[in-house]
Amino acid sequence: MGGRIVADSANLDAVKEVLQQHKRELMERYQAEGVAIGKASPADDRYVIVVFLAKKQDGLTESAEVDGIPVSFRVTGRFEAQT
């Protein structure tokens, strides 16, 4: 994934643009429940793309990135609509 641009992970607008461009691809590639933008850590100014997974998947590493933006994986279980 990626290869077109290298975005600044401290620039929220740049991270939003990368997520918008790659959202469908991320959802399909990882069979994700959802994707979002999160912080690399509470004290960090950098952002990451968070991919929410229904179950753990073999072979995923925290070193994944899209256009220079780190990708983080969270196993959350299936998302269900609340009524």
Description:
The chain is α+β, with helices and mostly antiparallel strands and 83 residues long. It has a single domain (12-75), classed as GMP Synthetase, Chain A, domain 3. Helix content is 22%, strand content 29%. The protein is built from one helix and four strands; from the N terminus they run H-E-E-E-E. It has a four-stranded mixed sheet with strand order 1-2-4-3, with helices on one face. The longest helix is centred in the N-terminal third of the chain and has 18 residues, at 12-29. The radius of gyration is 13 Å and the shape is globular. The N and C termini lie far apart (36 Å). The mean pLDDT is 88.
Furnish the topology, listing elements before pairings.
Blueprint: H1 12-29, E1 32-39, E2 47-53, E3 65-66, E4 69-75
Parallel strand pairs: 2-4
Antiparallel strand pairs: 1-2, 3-4
Helix content: 10-25%
Give me the CATH architecture, please: 2-Layer Sandwich
What is the overall shape? Answer: globular
Number of domains: 1
- What is the averaged pLDDT score? 88
Question: How do the strands of the widest beta sheet line up side by side?
Answer: 1-2-4-3
Unreliable stretches, pLDDT < 50, 5 or more residues?
none
Number of helices: 1
Q: Total strand count, please?
A: 4
CA-to-CA gap between the ends?
A: 36 Å
Assign the structural class, choosing from mainly alpha, mainly beta, alpha/beta, alpha+beta, or little secondary structure: alpha+beta
**Secondary-structure element series:** HEEEE
CATH top level is: Alpha Beta
